[in-house]
Structures are given as C-alpha cells and as structure tokens.
Amino acid sequence: MQSAVKKIGNSAGVIIPKPLLVEIGAKAGDKVDLRVEDGRIIIEPARRHPREGWAEAARQLAAEGEDGLVWPEFANDDDADWTW
C-alpha cells in the first residue's frame, strides 16, 4: 500500500489505511509510539501502564456502591502470634 505525506500545519502526516491499523490492533484516536530504526519509521500501539484507568474505575464502583470487599476479612491461624 502507498500513502502520501501531507502538510498539517507546521508538521506533516500520513494517512494509514484501516487494514494496516487493524493489523497492529490500533484504531483512529489511539496513541502510538514512533521511532526510527534503520532508516524506517516504526509505528506501534502505545504501551499502556498496567494500571491505567484503575482510579476512575474505583471511583465509578464507589459511586455505584459496589466497592465492598469481595471476600470478607478472615483471619489466619497464627495471627495471634504476630507483634504489631
């Protein structure tokens, strides 16, 4: 497939055909990582932080009253032996 480099303000851009985006698991609006390797521009889906979105999900669960413990607290047999 071919595309053209187009002027976008003071920068330039390339239209990436949908089949290529599908192949890398990306869609319009997704963040990507760019790098140059051996004279080629490499485009990869941006790596997400493993806990990205957890804070917002926790707030939503709390707002819905769904933030209780899944397993109620339970003791271990030797808890009485611990010094705190």
TrEMBL record:
Signal peptide: none annotated. Keywords: DNA-binding. One of its GO terms (molecular function) is toxin sequestering activity. Residues 3-48 form the SpoVT-AbrB domain. It comes from the Bacteria. SUPFAM superfamilies: AbrB/MazE/MraZ-like. PANTHER family: ANTITOXIN CHPS-RELATED. This is Antitoxin. It comes from Devosia geojensis.
